[in-house]
Structures are given as C-alpha cells and as structure tokens.
Design brief:
Elements (H helix, E strand, L loop, with lengths): L2 E5 L10 E4 L4 H17 L4 E4 L9 H15 L3
Parallel strand pairs: 1-2, 1-3
Helix pairs in contact: 1-2
C-alpha cells in the first residue's frame, strides 16, 4: 500500500510513500490542516496516517478538526 504520513517528524523505517510535515504549534497546525490533507488526498494514496496530536486545551480545536476531517475524507459509511 502507498501511505502518506502527516506528522511533525519524519517517520522511521519503513519509510512511507510520502511524508508531509505537520506543524508542532497548535495554531499553525490548525491553519495548515485542511490544505495539507487535500494535498495528500490528491496524491491518490491508499492511506493517510495522521500522528496523534498532544493532549491539552491548546490542541482541543485541532482534535475537533481532525475528527471532522476524518469523517469528511472517509466518505459515507
């Protein structure tokens, strides 16, 4: 499978087909989230893996957006 990874740091082996750097600041991450996911989706890969964001109130909005994005990109059940 061809896999893309969205995370602040490059994953170790085995290397994914594509890696997109996610910001490690919650405001910048939130700003870039949908554009980044659209870029990855346009690559036609089998999976997009998103590294879990940190716990805490400052990441709450990002967690909400990730949940919404997952429902949007997954399509109807």
């Amino acid at each position: 499978r061809r896999v893309a990874v969205w995370s602040p740091e490059r994953p170790g082996p085995p290397a994914p087909a594509h890696w997109e750097r996610a910001e490690d600041d919650p405001e910048l991450y939130a700003r870039d989230l949908y554009d980044g996911l659209r870029r990855l989706d346009a690559l036609g890969l089998d999976r997009i893996l998103v590294e879990r964001v940190p716990d805490g109130a400052d990441w709450e909005a990002v967690r909400d957006r990730l949940g919404r994005a997952a429902a949007t990109f997954a399509g109807p059940a």
